[in-house]
Specification:
alpha+beta
């Protein structure tokens, strides 16, 4: 122990004697360890922290899937859910819920809040007990006897934490529901985070009906029985699905997919975090290589000191220990400062994280993060200190003590090791730069993609008409007609329309058949995104009308039923034909003779309704003035020539004037909506780009330091060359070639590694791959060539500066060097 303390004191004195070396080494380690700690704190909070449910590892989401149609996580039909629940032997219980929105009225102003209609056993499946009150009772399953449980946040924010709220009614969609429970503050609706907004109310009363399997409306969650694995459960559910498919023709092609609840939550976040964790690991390795190079240079300068210690009886183990103590001390100092950097960096990561993409509540420095930092500090200290320690622990006592050996000859092994470290640095930098380059190209492609409409000066807001007074579709039409008439005359408004939803917010598919093919084979009925719109929708959105006409006020319930189709649907259903005048029928069961035939009166341009990264999908547009609809219109879109912010208060006033209990929510510009789905990818790209730039800087420092030291060691040799007639250009070329050779070996090695990484990325499922690479080949030759060129230029500059210095050396000084 005393000898270790002595080594520590000696290491401190040595580091104080070389402030330049110490500062450079600590800075590189601080950046590397700090970045790794910050990213790991996010990984810990999102990927490693367990969900806040009892035995959460036994909770699974149960989806329907139809691989033939490319659907792998589809909502579930009520009939299938009831059959699954009855026939399975792998779940203790199954619950269903339907994501919804409710108009909460009765306060100072109406408010739309996210919520769910649920089966009464949802909270028992989750293993959650209310903080106050009780959970749902089985008899509250039917809608006429439904009750409500509210979140802790809603209780505090909207009801002031009223201790008597349990037992009181609240108004949702104009109907009174009795509050029977309040959830604890720790409750997290992580089961819905991946596919719905965070719920604030849970209403009992799904009242599932087994008739018909065409309606897919419900999310399903289940709890595995003790001892049953997810794979075993999947096998049994596949058997049940196969049995249902044989029994009911309309279920042909439909299967079951089980996804662990935690996996469901982190499905889109995990690849991004792992990419970042890999990137910062590469940065740390490059930093360690640089510090190792510095220690090798430092060890060369201390050869006489080490030889004297060895001559006085110091063992090789003692010398190695001394060097490892110094390297570990550097690493500990770097880790300490890195924790400060990581604390700031983790806060920045939380601010950069898009909402609803990750559980970031636990991000920060905690016990596990401290343990990670300690392990990484110890590991890096040994990693970059071991090679210099082993090399320095075997000095040539005779040559070193006589001081007669040439530096170049006596450090040949050290020189080879330093060269190898530079090669590694460049190889790692290539992999990181290629990844960053591919993602930057992805961003460029996303900004250039044709989304099918003009998002400039386009405002959207949700105006949901709920409650008994709007159950009659005629009342809804009248409300929207008056509202649009008032909005269109506001100063600065160019056009306005009503719509069921807004583009980029996903798909609501419905089956249809055409009059040309009214009886498709079972399981092959086509479907399309179903959109209810107003007469001026396409003009408001800036979507071109390719053929035919738009809707008009003359399209009423008593006139011919009409529809506008997208280009992709027209091309698929009537290839090479004029679609105008064609007829189709929309519904869950298009064979239903009571469904009306719709006549195609127009063809609209394609729109990327599922996001910039998604392909064009077939779409059906129906006029809101022809009702009943399958889905109700809920949004207003407004195109303005003036400030969007100035229009919002005016529209709020117009809505309140028509009905004070109708809320206005989800106010946003289309540019904000477009940016939302790709925000995580953009954040990832900029972070990866920053780490790549840091790696490039460290690699350039590495080659500069190695070539500079090599020039110092070869000063005598270069002097002799110049004395024998070599000109300055020849000396410069000699030194630059050495640097470029090292860089080229590193680049070639790195390109091979980057190619392997690219092949791995190309094998990822589409729903994960699009986040990292949209419309970009993982083996994009332009990116690989650009990275190689950049690193070659960096290597040339890093070699040229010390080469110029070598060419200017004084000949007499060089010849008597050493």
């Amino acid at each position: 122990m005393n000898s270790l303390i002595q080594d520590l004191r000696y290491a401190l004195r040595q580091l104080r004697k070389s402030p330049g070396f110490t500062s450079a080494a600590v800075l590189m380690l601080t950046l590397g360890i700090g970045a790794n700690t910050a990213i790991f704190s996010m990984v810990n909070a999102v990927l490693l922290r367990p969900l806040s449910y009892k035995e959460a590892d036994r909770l699974v989401m149960v989806w329907e899937q139809n691989p033939h149609r490319g659907w792998f996580e589809n909502v579930v039909s009520a009939a299938n859910f009831l059959d699954w629940k009855k026939q399975n032997d792998v779940f203790t219980d199954m619950a269903a819920f339907e994501s919804n929105f409710f108009n909460l009225s009765g306060g100072n102003k109406p408010e739309e809040i996210a919520g769910e209609r649920v089966t009464t056993n949802l909270f028992s499946v989750l293993g959650v007990r209310p903080l106050r009150g009780r959970s749902f009772l089985p008899e509250e399953e039917k809608r006429g006897t439904a009750a409500v449980i509210v979140s802790y946040g809603l209780w505090q924010q909207n009801f002031g934490g009223d201790p008597e709220l349990v037992g009181k009614p609240i108004s949702l969609n104009g109907q009174a529901y009795t509050v029977v429970g309040i959830l604890p503050a720790t409750f997290a609706d992580d089961y819905s985070r991946s596919f719905a907004q965070h719920s604030r109310v849970w209403v009992s009363g799904l009242d599932l009906q087994p008739e018909g399997r065409e309606f897919h409306d419900y999310h399903t969650i289940a709890r595995l029985k003790p001892g049953v694995t997810q794979a075993q459960a999947q096998t049994e559910m596949d058997t049940i699905a196969s049995r249902i498919e044989q029994q009911y023709p309309e279920s042909r092609g439909w299967g079951v997919a089980l996804v662990g609840l935690h996996d469901q939550l982190v499905k889109y976040t995990r690849p991004a975090l792992l990419v970042l964790l890999g990137a910062v690991a590469l940065v740390l390795l490059i930093g360690c290589a640089n510090v190792a190079n510095l220690l090798l240079v430092r060890a060369t300068g201390r050869q006489k000191e080490i030889a004297i210690r060895a001559a006085l009886g110091a063992s090789r183990a003692q010398i190695v220990r001394q060097f490892l103590v110094e390297s570990s001390l550097l690493s500990i100092i770097g880790a300490t400062l890195g924790l400060v950097l990581a604390s700031w960096g983790s806060e920045l990561l939380v601010r950069l994280t898009p909402p609803d993409t990750a559980r970031v509540e636990g991000v920060g420095i905690n016990g596990l993060v401290l343990l990670f930092t300690g392990v990484i500090a110890l590991g890096t200290g040994i990693a970059f200190g071991l090679a210099p320690a082993l090399g320095a622990s075997r000095p040539n006592l005779n040559e070193t003590l006589k001081d007669s050996g040439r530096g170049a000859s006596r450090s040949a092994k050290g020189r080879r090791l330093r060269d190898a470290l530079v090669v590694c640095e460049f190889g790692l930098a290539v992999a990181l730069l290629v990844g960053a380059g591919l993602m930057i190209k992805t961003l460029v492609h996303l900004h250039r993609v044709d989304i099918g409409f003009d998002p400039e000066n386009l405002l959207t807001m949700k105006v949901p008409l709920e409650g008994p007074q709007y159950q009659d579709a005629r009342r809804q039409v009248e409300f929207f007609q008056r509202l649009l008439a008032h909005i269109e005359v506001l100063p600065g408004v160019e056009a306005a329309s009503v719509t069921r939803g807004v583009p980029m917010n996903g798909w609501t598919g419905w089956s249809f058949v055409t009059a040309d093919h009214p009886n498709p084979p079972a399981g092959e009925t086509p479907d399309a995104n179903y959109v209810v719109i107003g007469a001026h929708y396409f003009r408001t959105m800036g979507t071109p009308l390719r053929l035919g006409r738009s809707f008009s006020d003359g399209d009423t319930p008593t006139s011919e039923r009409v529809v506008i189709v997208s280009e992709s649907l027209a091309r698929t259903q009537w290839p090479g034909e004029d679609p105008i005048g064609k007829r189709l029928k929309v519904g869950a069961d298009p064979s239903d003779k009571n469904l009306p035939w719709l006549t195609v009166v127009g063809v609209a341009g394609n729109v990327r309704s599922e996001g910039e990264y998604a392909p064009f999908i077939p779409e059906l547009y129906v006029p809101y003035t022809q009702y009943p609809w399958i889905l109700w219109p809920r949004h207003i879109v407004v195109r303005t020539a003036s400030s969007l912010s100035a229009i919002i208060p005016a529209i709020r006033r117009e809505v309140a004037a028509l009905d004070k209990d109708v809320p206005v929510s989800e106010i946003s510009t289309m540019k904000e909506i477009i940016a939302g789905p790709v925000q995580q990818g953009q954040t990832l790209t900029w972070l990866l780009g920053a780490f790549a730039a840091l790696a490039l800087t460290l690699a350039s420092i590495g080659i500069y330091s190695v070539i500079s030291y090599a020039v110092t060691q070869r000063t005598h040799e270069l002097g002799i060359r110049m004395a024998l007639g070599a000109d300055r250009r020849a000396v410069v070329n000699l030194v630059v070639k050495q640097g470029l050779l090292l860089a080229m070996i590193g680049v070639v090695t790195g390109l091979a590694g980057a190619w392997g990484m690219a092949r791995f990325l190309s094998s990822l499922p589409f729903e994960v791959r699009w986040l990292l690479l949209f419309d970009v080949r993982p083996t994009d030759p332009l990116t690989f060539a650009a990275v190689s060129t950049i690193l070659t230029i960096v290597a040339f500059l890093g070699s040229y500066v010390p080469a110029r210095r070598a060419a200017k050396v004084d000949l007499m000084v060089a010849l008597r060097y050493e």
